[in-house]
Design goal:
Blueprint (H helix, E strand, L loop, with lengths): L7 H9 L5 H19 L2 E4 L1 H16 L11 E5 L26 H7 L4 E6 L33 H9 L4 E5 L6 H7 L2 E4 L20 E5 L2 H11 L29 E5 L9 H16 L3 E5 L7 H16 L17 H12 L2 H14 L4 H22 L5 E5 L15 H5 L6 H6 L3 E8 L5 E7 L5 H13 L2
Parallel strand pairs: 2-3, 2-4, 7-8, 7-9
Antiparallel strand pairs: 1-3, 4-6, 5-6, 5-10, 9-11, 10-11
Helix pairs in contact: 2-3, 5-6, 7-15, 9-11, 9-12
Length: about 475
């Protein structure tokens, strides 16, 4: 019996009834890693010895008759921009190639309290800057459904690991769609929580006002369990919300009767793949058949979201990445003086996409351009937030494509950054507005590649998007 392709809640049941052991489960997943990892490249670091030791500890606990948590003994992956004490955390960048954090990120610390089994740290676009995981400083990750296609990004390693059976669930981060888009491309579930719902402490910063950690899982039920584990206020993160965290598993109710779901006309425009549009509209029809009220809505400033995001995010990135100077920690390339050393370090150790975004950000923040670009982008961000606020006066949820296409081929967009950036058109508005969103599989293209749609909720209303996603999942 293969175990690597089961959900966490199914495996929890098998563990608690002693039909399998945690060591047997971990061995099965590690065997799967050995079988496919050289083709997929989901990981940057594999923590094999730790995984085996931790699984044995779970078995000993079960043997003593003690209860285990829903995630205890379940093999997982963690995106390699989330700090893990004593375990290399590289952000897929040569500049942090040998960095080992002295502390855990809060979200990872909360997760480890549930005692899952860490299989390893997952690959990503360098510093989470990219949408294909081709911008990793170490190697590309491939889509398990078709090795000639990308897994999405920046959490491509996390999504590919779950889709390929190299982990049962994973943590990712989402700054402009980096959980939802790879989840869509890999045919798994990915949730971006409300900004502030999960602590950012220990998440290596890309764009601080946009970043958010969230789960990538096989199904919606697992998503709720992982979100339960990582959500909550953190004094170490000044942007962490003090709002009470509900038990998200109580939202797993197959009922959408009476919910009003909006379809934003701006998300169904020229350029969207016909297979994607058909699948997403069919998902809307299924919700209607299940008793939801489907209405067309308008989010009029959507057209400006990409421009706004690619001013704000690089500006914040340029500021956040100033710390990588070869002085305190990280890689250092020698020079004749300090300035030369810093220049050489950043030139040699940062990848092309990171350099590009730093330059865009510094330009937007420079004297004479701050008001014309960055300040104006902040004002447009407010208009985008207002669009959602107005929409949620009449609807409970918003349904839209996660991405305008299915997974594209490796190398197809690397030489055209603008084309790559436009892939984020459906996802970045949520980050700008700080809202929660979940990507759910809803079909496949004629070529057999997964398609996902996203459900967007009101701030701090992950419960409703989980409920609707769970309802849809039950009929598919």
């Amino acid at each position: 019996m293969s175990l690597y392709d089961k959900t966490a809640h199914e495996l929890h049941e098998l563990l608690t009834t002693k039909k399998i052991s945690a060591t047997e489960l971990t061995a099965d997943v590690l065997s799967r890693v050995d079988e496919v990892e050289d083709k997929i490249g989901a990981y940057l670091t594999i923590t094999r010895d730790k995984a085996i030791a931790d699984s044995k500890a779970v078995d000993e606990k079960i043997a003593r008759g003690e209860k285990i948590s829903p995630l205890e003994g379940i093999p997982c992956a963690v995106k390699d921009n989330i700090c893990t004490k004593g375990i290399r955390t590289t952000c897929a960048s040569k500049i942090l190639e040998n960095f080992v954090p002295p502390y855990d990120a809060t979200a990872y610390g909360k997760l480890t309290a549930q005692k899952p089994v860490l299989i390893g740290k997952a690959n990503l676009d360098e510093f989470a800057m990219g949408g294909s995981t081709e911008n990793s400083g170490f190697h590309v990750t491939r889509n398990p459904h078709n090795l000639e296609h990308v897994p999405g990004g920046s959490s491509g390693g996390s999504a590919a690991a779950v889709a390929a059976g190299e982990a049962v669930f994973a943590l990712g981060s989402d700054t402009g769609g980096s959980i939802r888009q790879p989840a869509s491309f890999c045919g798994v579930v990915g949730l971006k929580p409300t900004y502030g719902r999960v602590s950012r402490y220990g998440l290596v910063a890309y764009a601080s006002s946009l970043d958010q950690i969230g789960p990538i899982t096989r199904d919606v039920t697992d998503c709720a369990f992982v979100l339960n584990a990582i959500a909550g206020h953190d004094d170490m993160d000044s942007t962490s919300t003090a709002a009470q965290v509900p038990d998200f598993t109580k939202s797993l109710i197959a009922d959408v009767k009476g919910l009003t779901i909006g379809l934003p006309k701006e998300y169904f425009v020229a350029g969207i793949d016909s297979d994607v549009e058909t699948s997403v509209r069919n998902a809307a029809k299924k919700f209607e058949q299940l008793g939801a009220n489907i209405v067309e809505i308008s989010l009029p400033h959507t057209d400006y979201a990409i421009s706004t995001y690619y001013l704000i995010a690089p500006a914040e990135a340029a500021t956040n990445l100033e710390r990588y100077d070869g002085v305190s920690y990280g890689a250092r390339v020698d020079g004749v003086d300090v300035v030369d050393m810093m220049t050489n370090t950043r030139t040699e150790k940062f990848g092309a996409e990171v350099k590009r975004r730093i330059m865009i950000g510094n330009y937007a923040l420079s004297a004479g351009y701050y008001d014309a670009y960055y300040l104006k982008a902040l004002k447009v961000r407010t208009l985008i937030q207002r669009d959602f606020t107005d929409a949620f006066k009449t609807v409970d949820l918003i349904l839209a494509p996660t991405a305008p296409t299915a997974a594209f081929k490796l190398g197809e967009m690397v030489s055209d950054p603008l084309k790559m950036y436009l892939q984020d058109v459906c996802t970045v508005p949520l980050n700008l507005a700080g809202l929660p969103g979940i990507s759910i599989p809803c079909g496949v293209t004629n070529d057999g590649l997964p398609i996902g749609f996203q459900l967007i909720g009101k701030a701090l209303d992950e419960a409703t998007i989980l409920r609707a996603a769970f309802t849809y999942e039950q009929i598919n």
